[in-house]
Amino acid sequence: MTAAIEPIIGRYIHLTLQGRPHRIYFEEAGVGIPLLCLHTAASDSRQFRHMMTNTAITDHFRVIAFDMPWHGKSTPPDGWQDEEYQLTTDAYIELIRTFRDALGLTKPVTLGCSIGGRIVLPLAMRHAHEFAALIGLDSAAYQTGWYDSSWLHRPDVHGGEVCAGIVSGMVAPQSPSNCRWETLWQYMQSGPGVFKGDIYFYRADSDLRPDLSKIDTSVCPLYLMTGEYDFSCTPENTRQTAAAIPGAEVIIMKEIGHFAMSENPQQFRQYLLPVLDAIRTRLTAR
User: Fold this and answer.
1) pLDDT reading at 163 higher than 90
2) At 51, which helix (H) or strand (E)?
3) Percent of the residues in the chain that have a pLDDT greater than 70, as a whole number
4) CATH 3.30.465.10 fits 9-281, yes or no
5) Helices 159-168 and 177-188, axial angle in degrees (round to 10)
6) Taking the complete model, does pTM exceed 0.85, yes or no?
7) Strands 61-66 and 20-29
8) 48, 229, 234, 274: which has the highest count of C-beta atoms within 10 A?
9) What are 183-209's pLDDT values in tens digits?
10) How is the chain split into domains, by residue range?
């Protein structure tokens, strides 16, 4: 065969979450230390395809990313048509830990962006000993809302296109056009009410400022990486969060917005690879 085939493998796994059966899609590539990746609100695991095709990463890390329920190729649970999707901190943590345990991942490095970046903070508070390191992209303990989320689920508008329009300004101007539009295309495809349900976790269910003192970076290293053009989670938001967590490392990424791994993967690698090398060095030295 002469056509190029990417090394990414996609499969489904059946999990019980909140007492209900779920069919979860995930992709992976690479070998070595497990690196579990968590996508942004209303998007899916496709955001990490550039990491999964970068041998500088996959030669040392088994990169794994799943689609959250209601996202991407993961279907909602049976009966979804009679309920409103709403993500909570407890449900998100249960999903991550259940998926990790089902795949038999022992103390994975976990990297999340946006809502995935926010959830690494509760993971560090509650379950630090279960992870080798936590990396939060665009992660902060709290951010104020800056748009009307009621537009994200209305019968008279296309929710996916509104969603993409809202987040389009968070892509840095230096990001390549093809990567920008691939990132936004994934947002345009989100299911009805999914972005609104994810934002509930981001806005209403996770003001983490009172509990930051519970994070002990000697148990699990914490890296907070934020793009300089991100006005949803600003560099100052991230610095304020890190200031309350002794030992947290802050990295502000130049020429990057809110979607580092998908909007400008080449620029992102300059910041990510040193972090992964430091983690790998620490783990192999044990």
Assistant:
1) no
2) helix 49-52
3) 99
4) no
5) 140
6) yes
7) antiparallel
8) 48
9) 999 999 999 999 999 999 988 887 899
10) 9-281
